[in-house]
Amino acid sequence: MAKSCGYALAAAALCVSVLVVGVLLSAMAGYASPVIALVTVLAAPCGLVLTYDMLRRREEADEERRLLDRERDHVRRTVDFVADPELTEQERLAVIDSFVPRLGPHGERPPYGERVVLVRELPPHARALLERARRAVMAVYTSQVMRRRLLDGLANEVVLPRQIWEIALLLRTQATLQEEQDRARRGLVTPELEAVLRPQREALGRSLAAVTARVESLERYARRVQEADAALRAREALDNNYKYRDLLARIDDEDGMRELEAQGEALEETLARSVREAVEAGRTLTP
C-alpha cells in the first residue's frame, strides 16, 4: 500500500512538472498551440498511471477488508469468550482483532480485559455451569414464542445477555479466589491459617451456590419457554382439526367431533397459560 502511494505521488509530481515546463516554454517562445499539444501528449501517460494506481489501491483496500472479515469470522468460531454486553461494536471488534495474529498479540491479553472472560481460563466445573446457562439462553432465543414476540422483550434482549456476562464474571472471580486458597494451603496449615481460610472458603462456597441458583433460574425460564413452544405447536396442529372433523362426519361419529372441539377450546387456554408462565419466569430474572 505504501509503495503504491509512492508511485502515485511520483506520477503526480511528474505530471505537474511536465505541465509547468510546458507553460513556461510556451510563454517564453510565444507559440502556445504546438507546446500545449506536446504537453498534452506527455501528460496523458501520467494520467493513465494515476488512474491505474488509484484502481489498484482500491482493489488492495477491498481485499484487505475481505481478509479481515474472514479472520474475524475465524476468531468468532474458534475463540470462546464472554464480553460485557455494554461494550460498543468498535470495542468488540478490538477484542476480536486482538486474536488475529497479524494485527496484534495472540489473544493472551485482549483489550478491555476486565470486560472480557476467556472461557478457556475457567476451571472445568465453571465452564460446565457457563455452558448450562448458555444452553438455556439459546433455547429461549431459538424458540417460536421468542420469534413471534410473545415473550417479554426486556428479559430477552437486555437481561439475558447481562445474566450470561455476570455469571461468567463471577465464575472467573471465584476461580481466582480458589487459586489463592489452594496456594495458601500448600505446606503446613496451622490453626491460625485455618481460622483465616475457613470463612473465606465458606464465602466462596456461598458465592458458587448463588451462581448455580442463577443458572437453575435460567434453566427454569427456558423450560417454561419450551412448554409455551409445545403449546404453540399444538395450537398450530389444531388448525388441521377440520380435516379430522370431515373424516368423522363421513362415518357419522358425533362423539368424536365433539371431543375434537372440546380439545380445541382447552388448548387455547393451555397456550395462553403457558405463555403467561413463561413471561412471569422471565421477569424473575430482572434484578
Can you give a write-up of this model?
The chain has 287 residues and is mostly helical. The protein folds into two domains: 2-78; 122-283, no CATH class. It is 79% helix and 2% strand. Helix 1 runs antiparallel to helix 2, helix 4 packs parallel to helix 7 and helix 6 (153-184) runs antiparallel to helix 7. It is built from nine helices and two strands, in the order H-H-E-H-E-H-H-H-H-H-H. The protein is flat and about 85 Å long. A two-stranded antiparallel sheet has the order 1-2. It has helices at residues 2-29, 32-78, 89-97, 124-141, 144-147, 153-184, 191-238, 241-250, 254-283; strands at residues 81-83, 116-118.
The rounded distance between the terminal residues' Cα atoms is 52 Å
The number of helical runs is 9
What does the overall shape look like? flat
Question: How many domains is the backbone divided into?
Answer: 2
Overall average residue pLDDT: 79
The helix content, as a percent range, equals over 70%
Q: Largest sheet at a glance?
A: 2 strands, antiparallel
Order of helices and strands: HHEHEHHHHHH
**Uncertain stretches:** none
Transmembrane segments: 7-29, 35-55
Keywords: Membrane, Transmembrane, Transmembrane helix
